[in-house]
Amino acid sequence: MGADSRSRDGSPDGVSPAWGDGGDGEERAGVETLARFLADSFRSHHSVDPRRDPRAWRLIQEAAARAWADLRVRPTAAVVLPCLLSSGGVPLHLDIIVTRDDMRRALLEENS
Questions:
Q1: CA 52 to chain CA centroid, nearest Å
Q2: How far is residue 96 from each of residues 58, 84, 88, measured CA to CA in Å?
Q3: What is the pTM of this model?
Q4: How many CB atoms lie within 10 A of CB 27?
Q5: Which of 15, 24, 54, 64 is surrounded by the most beta carbons within 10 Å?
């Protein structure tokens, strides 16, 4: 594959993410959107909002930054945070595969 047939972000599969060229402000906003997406997913599965716990929210934000970077070069990113929180003494985990399509939808929803 020649350089001219690669996507704008240089992704090997030729699929350009819908979230821009990675400028600092744009990237920060994208990571925050992804963090909210992950927190919402956790809340929908466990009925506990991880944003209310500073440690859990920080871990989600860090995982979102790593996943954001992965999604720039891969079509999917795995986010695995074992024992993120507990409820009634039972550990609750975040284990999700995020796709570029998931990110596109999350970004579109935030901008609408």
A1: 19
A2: 17, 13, 23
A3: 0.77
A4: 17
A5: 64
Q: Strands (DSSP E) along the chain, which ranges?
A: 76-87, 90-99
Backbone angles phi, psi at 60, to 5 degrees: -65, -45
User: pLDDT digit of tens for each residue in the chain (112 aa)?
Assistant: 444 333 444 333 333 344 455 556 778 888 999 999 999 999 999 999 999 999 999 999 999 999 999 999 999 999 999 999 999 999 999 999 999 999 888 888 888 7
Look up tokens 């699929």; give the residue.
15
> CA 51 from chain center: how many Å?
15
Cβ atoms within 10 Å of 7's Cβ, excluding its own:
12
Q: Which structural domains are found in the chain, ordered by start?
A: 21-110 (3.90.640.10)
